[in-house]
Structures
1.
Amino acid sequence: MDSSSSTSTRRRMRSGGVAIGGMGLLAAALVACGSSKEPDKRCVDRVTLEKLNNRECKSGSSGRGGHAAYYYGGSVSGNKVSGGSFDKSAVTRGGIGGHSSSSGG
């Protein structure tokens, strides 16, 4: 009888270990998905700060008379951007929250 009780204890411990290992794997996957170092980018008219269609910023395109450029970070309100920068290096992105901070303009 003693050997059967130790066998059932070992089985329970294994399933607990699998659950804990699975949780660690899930946590690692979530952190990896949310930790991109790239800030949000939008195609914007440099003069009016209007959000444009991304194809106007594609390389080789001179959309909006050469005024189309990528704007990093910030937010969009009423089709106008604010709080970000045209200089990608001036904007950093936080981990899972996706909060951006910026300077310049």
Note: Helices lie at 2-34, 63-66.
2.
Amino acid sequence: MKENYLALAQRLKYEREAGRLVDAEKVEARHATRWSEERNAWENWPSSVCADMAAQLGADPIKLRVALESFVDRHLRERVRKGADASAAG
């Protein structure tokens, strides 16, 4: 039993030093930061493109921005829901 524990401890040490074993808390924190950055980029996207899109389409820029924001918001909510569903299932 002791030999098995020592072998496992040695393997964990090796995996950590080889960079194949990472801290779960650090990964989760980086994932949360990355998701926040992506969400912010998507939320800002309609404002950054609506003037050019409206000019190309001959549309009202304010109405277009409101529509784009609505679609982006719905898309992000669906992504969060799908992620929560996958977490609950897995």
Note: The chain has a mean pLDDT of 92.
3.
Amino acid sequence: MLFVSTDSLDGFSLSLSSSNSSSPSSSSSSKPGTLTLYLSPTTSTSSTLGSLIYALPNSLSTPLFSDESSIDLATRIASTLATKFKRPVIVGSSIPSRADPTGSLISRVIFYVQQQQQQQQQQQQQ
């Protein structure tokens, strides 16, 4: 099942997609698929492509595309989400790393993703 959500969070736009790789013959065996998140500023009139990071739960991450201004924040978010949710993560971000000097955006993103995951589970149970 594919779950897609788009929302805004304190001046940033988030687009989240999540899938479960499950066998059609057995609904109880559900492996988590890749979590994909894209973050962009909502107030900027012009935005760069930003950075695209692929991260695994074992703390390995690699940039698929990098922009010097956003790679640090995108890497931190991707690594944190992969570790927290124990699944592969792709994070795209055009938000400059300097926009989050305290790291508070990461905790807000984690909270947002947790809420969306809970909603997805509730929808699957219905």
Note: The chain has a mean pLDDT of 80.
4.
Amino acid sequence: MATSMANGPASAAGKSEFRNQKQKQENRASIETKIDVAAIKEKVKKAKNKKLGALTAEEVKLKMEADEKKKK
């Protein structure tokens, strides 16, 4: 009987270790899928460089000329 008592708690400890390992794997997977930091940084860079507002008169002329050349 002494051996069966010794095996009982040991097997329960083994199960809890298995659960802990499984939780760690799930946590790693969820962290990897949550945030893509590099993509966010790239979007921020692009947004900072983006011009806001209407084009200047010169830019409008240049754009119109370029469009006309493309049509021909």
Note: The radius of gyration is 31 Å.
